[in-house]
Amino acid sequence: MEIPITQSKEWEQLQQDLKEPSFYREEEGYQYLAIKKHIPGGCYLYLPYGPVAEAAKDFKAALQDLQELAREENAVFIRIEPRNPSFIKNFPKNTKKSHDLNPKETWVLDLTGAEEEYKAKLPSRLLRYYRNREKNGITIETSKNPDDIKYLLDLQRALAKEKNISTFSEDYLKTELSQPFATLYLVKQEGNIIAAGLVFDHGKTRYNLQGAQTDEGRKLHATGILTIQLIEDAREKGLELFDFWGIAPEGAPSTHPWAGFTNFKKTFDGREVDFAGTYDIILKPAKYKTYNLLRKIRRMI
User: If phi over 0 gives left and psi between -120 and 50 gives alpha, with beta otherwise, what is residue 26?
Assistant: First the structure.
């Protein structure tokens, strides 16, 4: 049973450090981490990429366990994101599709195999930029210092404004970087930071969660150079998969916020992995309706 990092004990520790109440269960056949989120009029339980189950019967057992927990916590609903799409048919009747929080589709690169076979999966153009990086005065450093997250955040804020997307808070990102599984990469050109990326290592997978670059970095292909470095380091550590963490849905228009990211990620010879998406198991219909109404008003504002 493959456990994503967001359903692991390590992710539970992150929640504790964030002062977020959470509930971890590890039973025969299933496992989950449920994070308690407060909303006006109550709370709900959120399982990022969970629950995880070996088979349909185990998934049903996990949902039964979750609903008992939710009633104890007086939760309005349970927000689940099972990675196995076949489990959708086992959802209870009081389940409704929600806006996807974590990506429903992702792009994954296999890092195993002989060196020649592995290199063939990397874009030759980016490999050329990577090999010539020092000639262009480009260096790459790693950091575990939470204070250095400001470099990534500054780049992300500029990108968020351009793409009309949201970013995490500085405190949240600092807490993430303080975890043993997190590493910050900084790309510099003659001392100036032109790109940054945050990766998480768990099990046999490296998750490429967040990254951004400056206009100058774009001209120098900094993100491409950084991605090659991230992949090279992951393989050197003995990791087997590189998860690019999200692509736009099949058939998405060119105006989709992830269109450019997706085109870039698919230049690597990986494979698409599809998950079930985000769903809500509704326990208190009236309060759930009020919650959704308030959320729509807040988005409009």
Answer: beta
